[in-house]
Amino acid sequence: MQYGPAVRRRKLGAELRALRGLAGLTSGEAAARVGWHQSKVSRIETGRSGVRASDVRLLLEAYDVEDPQLRELLVALAGGDDETGRHHWWHAYRGLLPPAYRDFISLESQACRVRTLETTVVPGLLQTPDYARAVTRAALGGLPEEQVEALVQVRLARQDVLRNNPPLRLSVILDEAVLRRQVGGPEVLAGQMRRLLEAARLPQVRVQVLPFAAGEHIGLIGSFVILSFPNISDLDVVVLDHLTSSLYLERKEDLKAYTNAFNSLQGKALSVKDSMDFIAGLGDGA
Question: Each residue of 21-30: pLDDT tens digit?
């Protein structure tokens, strides 16, 4: 169990070590190519030290890595700008967003698939502005209104991943409590129900409801998110949110356990069609 930056360093280092191996270079030969000491390459590969995006680009050039998607992902793991040198949009909110949230947004922006169980609120990628506003005010009581609005804008900007080409594939399991909790009041909740129905019609989005009638289930452990990435399955990670931080689980056994849990919950949840009918019924009564 690690915090986001440590996970990113280790995963990035492991991938760079694998790419060096594919290039047929020793760590000393790689260091010579980029003008470094061999110990710097070793520290990066073992995740003992951070690495700048510019250093990642140097290593990728040395290893003749040309795949643009892979290059962009690895640069993002280093916390850097994209291949054109442009800042990622969340850099503009550095003074507002805690590092753990920036790390999560960075990983989410590069993921190809997200699977999430939500037991308390609608996931941020599907929230309406009014719903996001109510959640933010409740979670961060006393925050100045301009900061609340800025955080809502961050939440909405994150949703662009669903409109990317290719779009993020999103699978969501919602506990029935999420749909019945009067976040923001009846009108806000009714608008959120309509948004869920709109999202569920997108080919890349799958929404299922886990009804109270399902009884006890493994999801009682709480909400979690599984992030998966293109090209590199070893980068997959489970994210658990806490009040003041997020924790990342990266061991293969952890990923397997949470993947199995998600698959089990999908089996207990209503089908996609029945889930949409369930949400529509609640929306009519909101």
Answer: 999 999 999 9
